[in-house]
Amino acid sequence: MKKVVVGLSGGVDSSTAAAILHNQGYDVIGLTLWLMKGKGQCCSEGMIDAASICEQLGIPHEVVDMRDVFQTHIVDYLVTGYGAGITPLPCSQCNKTVKFGPMVEYAREKLGCDRIATGHYARISYDEASGRYQLLRAVDRNKDQTYFLYDLSQDLLAASLFPLGEMEKADTRRIAAEYGLKTADKPESQDLCLVESNGSMRAFLDKYISPKKGDIVDTTGKVIGQHDGVHHYTIGQRKGLGIAAAEPLYVIALDAVNNKVVVGDRTKATQPECTVSRVNWVSIAEPSTPIRAAVQIRYRSAPEPVTIIPLENSRVRLVFDEPQFSITPGQAAVWYDGDNVLGGGIIDQFS
Q1: Which domains does the chain have, with CATH numbers?
Q2: What is the dihedral of CA 166, 172, 178, 182, to 10 degrees?
Q3: How many other CB atoms are there within 10 angstroms of residue 196's CB atom?
Q4: pLDDT in tens, 138-194
Q5: pTM beyond 0.85, yes or no
Q6: Which string of DSSP letters, residue by residue, matches 275-301?
Q7: Which residues are tagged catalytic?
Q8: Are strands 3-7 and 332-337 parallel, antiparallel or unpaired?
């Protein structure tokens, strides 16, 4: 019998993934990662629901304490980034460093298993010609999560299964209901786990970064307002500036060193290119010459035509066909060829 370790968060997606594999004849072991510190954190309810699903399916349930790893690689990463005036994207780092990597290691070393599965909406295929595993968009484009999975290595892709990749979200809930899973009607998370746990990103950051008043300035350096902490702002932000102006103003730069928020009109928040670091080439080997692709610079943005120019030290330059609004350092840029994830990395500076 094929053995697989299924990551269970306590939500409908991971629960249904486990039930599908169990009914396909896999020897399923449920695994829940305990990520949050503190009594009453959101992980508590998830662990209870995950345990209940495992009991219902008649499968073992393991819990691994990853709170220290999560604190170091996600919480500290976020706090350091926001404090430096960037807007980090924690999910892709969490998937690789906190979830998939440790899950595969635990499965292999503790459970004698080489395969893991999650409830992510994505697909994996193997290309014989290149000898590489390819990460593909989910059939349900509204739920596609490949933007957050671009950093997975070939080893992790080889070890992973995504049972929901060929399904629509409605199918997932229907199947969960057919199996009688208690999570079938459970509302899905709409925010980052840290936001849900703390009420807002602002509340989370204020636990770690003391508010520090400073100036909001225009592109000439003229003071036109005040702020209570650079970490409360992000590139492209329009609302919440507290400034009356003849035209809409947007955050175009965050100067953490001088504690200033720089604002300007929409044209000044638009850039023709940017550089990206910490690049992971997924479905293709790293190219030596420029390639064409379509890139997303945020999760819900439309893919935009781009020329990708390889640089040294796992970096690339993105040159957009049309200048892009609100390119945000710290966020991910992920490039595609149709449904195929070619690669991605972290936006690190404007050019």
Answers
A1: 3-198 (3.40.50.620), 211-264 (2.30.30.280), 270-350 (2.40.30.10)
A2: 140
A3: 14
A4: 999 999 999 999 999 999 999 999 999 999 999 999 999 999 999 998 887 765 777
A5: yes
A6: EEEEEEE-SSPPPSS-EEEEEESSTTS
A7: 94, 193
A8: unpaired
